[in-house]
Amino acid sequence: MLTSGPSTSNNPIFSGWYADPEIHVFQGRYYVYPTYSAPYEKQTFLEAFSSPDLVHWHREGRVLDFKDIPWSTNRAAWAPSVIERDGTYFMYFSAGDGAGIGVATSRHPGGPFKDALGKPLIKDVINGAQPIDAMAFLDDDGQAYLYYGGWRHANVVKLSKDMLRTEGEFKEITPEGYVEGSFMLKRGCEYVFMWSEGGWGNDTYGVAYARSKSPLGPFERIGKILGTDPAVGKGAGHHSVLKLPGTEEYVICYHRRPLEETDANARVVCLDRLIFTPEGNILPVKQTFEGVKAHPLPR
Question: What is this structure's pTM?
Fold first, then answer.
């Protein structure tokens, strides 16, 4: 048992330039899957980090390498989304600017992940949506969905039970202000759709949300909850949300740019609290340097 060291995660939660983090609990550990934040030609792989308590993070290393995916552009590896179904872990990833969205599989959340199709899952531009920034969501009834899109358009499409095919129509669900970075969260019987807006390389970047009674929307923008805090960090966005096991508390995992940095790729991964009002709305996120309290998982 960990008995010493910091009692909060601290921000950033691990060192290095990373962005677009997705956080999960898998096999008794927290996992974060980010984008390696660098010029496009250096983004040729995806990594993962894991922790028993949100405080002590272990670098799992490269979990997917574009050198093993010949149909990718071998650049611009972006925004992985990982989901578990029937003992298999599925990673949906942006396979480079123009290559589309791919899917890779592993029997372990720490990888390695292997390309499952030998081609993109989604290649074409549909409803004006750039095929990037996929987020896989499994509803309580067993139906899986993929939310995705850049270029200010968002789509949702059903996934087959084996998670390797899309089924039915691609429905456009673009809310006001949407740019990229789709994320879906279900609370009770309500669906909370979240996204990033503004420009990723500047101080306008941030996160907004909508609420609906259906996973297919409609989603009408309620408001912005995360962005630039001139006392803490700039351009905070492209996030994910996790309900802490055994509690009613939520954390938001996101990237931001330190105040002193001017390079657009100088982004770090942070954790802070996400608070819902009794009415189900989200309060603006208070960005901190302390992060969130340790929350050890049962062993």
Answer: 0.97
Residue 213 sits at the vertex; the CA angle it makes with 207 and 214, to the nearest 5 degrees, is 85
Q: Is the pLDDT of residue 284 over 90?
A: yes
Torsion of CA 280, 24, 226, 219, to 10 degrees: -50
- How many angstroms separate the first and last alpha carbons of the chain? 9
Q: Which positions are catalytic?
A: 20, 180
DSSP-derived 3-state class of residue 245: coil
CA distance 219 to 171: 12
pLDDT over 60 at 99, yes or no: yes
Q: What tokens were used for 237?
A: 């966005």
Q: Establish whether the linkage from the previous residue to 258 is cis, with ω within 30° of 0.
A: no
- Mean pLDDT value of segment 107-118: 98
Which residue from 32, 165, 37 is spatially nearest to 109, judged by alpha carbons? Answer: 32
Q: Is 95 exposed, middle or buried (0-12, 13-18, 19+ CB in 10 A)?
A: buried
Averaged pLDDT score across all residues of the chain: 97
